[in-house]
Automatic annotation (TrEMBL):
<dbReference type="GO" id="GO:0015940">
    <property type="term" value="P:pantothenate biosynthetic process"/>
</dbReference>
<comment type="similarity">
    <text>Belongs to the ketopantoate reductase family.</text>
</comment>
<dbReference type="InterPro" id="IPR036291">
    <property type="entry name" value="NAD(P)-bd_dom_sf"/>
</dbReference>
<keyword id="KW-0560">Oxidoreductase</keyword>
<dbReference type="InterPro" id="IPR013752">
    <property type="entry name" value="KPA_reductase"/>
</dbReference>
<comment type="function">
    <text>Catalyzes the NADPH-dependent reduction of ketopantoate into pantoic acid.</text>
</comment>
<comment type="pathway">
    <text>Cofactor biosynthesis; (R)-pantothenate biosynthesis; (R)-pantoate from 3-methyl-2-oxobutanoate: step 2/2.</text>
</comment>
<dbReference type="Pfam" id="PF02558">
    <property type="entry name" value="ApbA"/>
</dbReference>
<keyword id="KW-0566">Pantothenate biosynthesis</keyword>
<dbReference type="InterPro" id="IPR013332">
    <property type="entry name" value="KPR_N"/>
</dbReference>
<dbReference type="InterPro" id="IPR003710">
    <property type="entry name" value="ApbA"/>
</dbReference>
<protein>
    <recommendedName>
        <fullName>2-dehydropantoate 2-reductase</fullName>
        <ecNumber>1.1.1.169</ecNumber>
    </recommendedName>
</protein>
<keyword id="KW-0521">NADP</keyword>
<dbReference type="GO" id="GO:0050661">
    <property type="term" value="F:NADP binding"/>
</dbReference>
<dbReference type="InterPro" id="IPR050838">
    <property type="entry name" value="Ketopantoate_reductase"/>
</dbReference>
<dbReference type="InterPro" id="IPR008927">
    <property type="entry name" value="6-PGluconate_DH-like_C_sf"/>
</dbReference>
<dbReference type="Pfam" id="PF08546">
    <property type="entry name" value="ApbA_C"/>
</dbReference>
Amino acid sequence: MEWTIVGAGAIGCLWGASLQQAGFGVTLVLRDATRLQQFRRAGGIRLTREGNESLHRVKATLAGDCGPIERLLLCTKAFDTEAALRAVLPRLTPNARVLVLQNGLGNQQLAGELVGPWRLAIGSTTDGAWLRAPFEVVHAGRGQTRIGASDADSSDLVAELPDDFSLEVCSDPDIETTLWRKLAVNCAINPLTAIHACRNGDLVRIARYREELIRLCDEFELVARARGTQLFDRPLAEQAQNVAAATGDNFSSMLQDIRHRRTTEIEQITGYLCREAERLGIAVPTHRAMLEQVRKLEATQHRRDS
Ligand code: KPL
């Protein structure tokens, strides 16, 4: 079986190397000729895991040159979902399956509308990975990837992976709740770290930041309760502080995006929550303030560049 991966960031490279190691054919679809050259210089995906480094000679191509796709893994930033899928849509075979493994919410529904809900599987991961250089991924924290679907059976995709697959993967009968739990943690940690330019652990250490985090969590719980979504078996404020402490030395993905002057996923994280709160008539003033502040930060970075 051949897997095609769109989005060669940390998670895309981690999966590319792991699938290749498990004996699957793997092709990365890259953005442009410059990226393709970069990939050829790298010679493949370099994976560092538990101190061991390995080189994985996967293939790479541009969307226009891509062959038929049977299994597609989409790992782009959430805001790139539509453009990335449209570019490869004509290559999907009639029985193709599409696994979306991204942050945020809303993008999975969009993916389903584009590829057909019966083809779509949705993933959510707690694996920690970062890129040391293009196509050089460090698997920093072993987590779990849960895979489910709203309008299809995704257990066959999980069953295709060998028992000794190097990533922990399981079927999730309630992937929507899992996505909401991840959204909750991301809504609490990501914007705050981006605004204060701090490590995740500072949100627990610094009282003023901790108070903001607790306010964000309390507001989030109002929305979750109103839509009947069961979050964690402990208060969200406690769960979010645990995650912030456990990933204390990390810079969140949103802060990294701000620092590299990239567009952040704020619209698919806090933006999604604010839209849902508005639909339900619930006030979430702290999240709204976060949304505005991160939008301003992004605009300032982009203005500096132009
Ligand atoms: O998922 C994350 C992110 O940075 O996007 C957290 C959980 C905040 C860890 O850094």
